[in-house]
From TrEMBL:
The keyword Repeat does not apply. GO terms for molecular function: oxidoreductase activity. InterPro entries: Encapsulin_nc, Ferritin-like_SF. Pfam families: COQ7. It comes from Clostridium luticellarii. Residues 103-125 are annotated as: Disordered. Residues 104-116 have a biased composition (Basic and acidic residues). Its EC number is 1.14.13.-. This is 2-nonaprenyl-3-methyl-6-methoxy-1,4-benzoquinol hydroxylase.
Amino acid sequence: MPNFANPFQGNVDRKMTKEELIQAIRLDIAGELEAIYLYESHVLATDNAAAKKVIADIRDEEKAHVGELMSLLKILDPEEAEHFASGETEVAEMMENLNIQIPEAKETSNPDESTHKTVGSLIKE
């Protein structure tokens, strides 16, 4: 849960080392995952259509943040990226042995072409 009692909780009085930055990004990922969990629980706990729509959109934006942070982590720590790739290969092999096809991620070349609308995209300029 947030720790707002100390306004300087996240402040660092110096530049972080690369190793500290990597650890900070891992903590950021954990925070995003916690936010996803909380938002999803709120979506499941209400029947209010407007709240469900907005909170689900926010949850999905947090998922994108996880992807961004994971991409950055792979750049900063190539050895860790090798572990991620190894894990992905292991799961793919397990799914193949179970005759389960892994769905491919949908990609759009232009974000404006996406059918997924975000709260921000609903604001008319």
